[in-house]
Amino acid sequence: MADRFGAEAIISGAVIGWSALTFVTPLIIQASSHSFVRRNAIICRLLVGCFQGLYYPSISSLLSKRVLPVDRAFSFSFASSGSHFGTLLTGIVGSLLLDYVGWTYPFYCIGIFGMAWVGIIHYHLIDESHTLHMSSSKKNLTEELEKEFPQPSINVPWMKLFKAVPFWAVIFGQFCGSWTFFILLSWLPTYFQETFPEAKGWVFNVVPWAVSLPCQWFSGWLSDHLIVKGYSTTFVRKCIQSISFCGAGFFLFFVSYMNSYESALVCMTTAIAFCAFHHSAISVNVQDIAPDYAGSVFGLMNTAGAIPGFIGVYVAGYLLERWKSWGVVFNMTSAVCFTGCLTFTLFGTGQKVV
């Protein structure tokens, strides 16, 4: 949709959609009869998820057409870091609102802020009536982008992509990266609660994700810096992704051997920090191999990345139930990281495929 109708319009519509639904969710729940509360709440959240699913493919499509290749990694890593920052901010502010005002107000605030963001962005960046007086540098950049990205066909050459090995390397790499992310997101609190009952929840729920933000920005800067220095895009994407997979895999392997809360927290925080490098490698690689169809291809890649959200979490739970050991879960996740690293290193590319 972003490739066909324009990423700006899809992003605006998606944010308005999930913000409006978030705002009305408490109203719908309060207006529902007791027997339909759960059903209506689930429907609202499913619709919110549908709108949010449009965001990342649209961002990828937008950056592939509006950002030069030497700036893509930092641009995407910085844009995608907003979701992590929002999670941290919502956790802090939302907790205060829950304690002092009521459970409905986090929904209202998120909905209002989302729709206000669309209005501000549309007024200052999208509405052409407010961007007529462009500086000469902006005009030069626009002309350079038009030369770099000519208007493509809207028909995605899927068959050519499906026959390309680098495409499947990206798909598998995204699957492995998402597997690691969802395992940590879903099971990290349980691990600390069971292994170190005296640990403070706000520490292990906040610190690892807070540290990942600057690491994500740094990885984007480092990736673009290496390309500017003359290293090939293929080398840079493989190098950054190898750092991500190997770093996360290494610390996840050793975390099960940590006997103290502090050492386990350091291992987990470092593993999550390395996971953040993923956003400057495989997540950007779609714009390298299919710059004219980045939104469509990213959507398919993200679908593969969503599978571990339910399969990976279930497998981890099964292993815990079967073996009663966190080491089995983390060693399996570490093996997934190293497998993804090997696959992308052997078969990935930073060159245009379609």
Number of β-strand runs: 0
**Mind describing the biggest β-sheet?**
none
Radius of gyration: 21 Å
Give the mean pLDDT.
87
What is the distance, rounded to the nearest whole angstrom, between the alpha carbons of the first and last residues?
18 Å
How are helices and strands ordered from N to C?
Answer: HHHHHHHHHHHHHHHH
- Dominant shape: globular
User: How much β-strand is present in the residues?
Assistant: under 5%
Q: Would you identify the regions where 5 or more consecutive residues have pLDDT less than 50? A: 129-137
- What multimeric state do the chains show? single chain
Secondary-structure class: mainly alpha
Word description of this protein:
The longest helix is centred in the middle third of the chain and has 31 residues, at 165-195. With 354 residues, this protein is an all-alpha fold. It is built from 16 helices and no strands. The relative contact order is 0.14. Helix 9 (165-195) crosses helix 14. The chain is globular, with a radius of gyration of 21 Å.
Write the layout of secondary structure elements.
Layout: H1 2-5, H2 7-31, H3 37-52, H4 55-66, H5 72-100, H6 104-126, H7 136-148, H8 158-162, H9 165-195, H10 201-228, H11 233-255, H12 261-275, H13 282-289, H14 294-306, H15 311-323, H16 326-347
Task: Give descriptors for this structure.
single chain, 354 residues, mainly alpha, 16 helices, globular
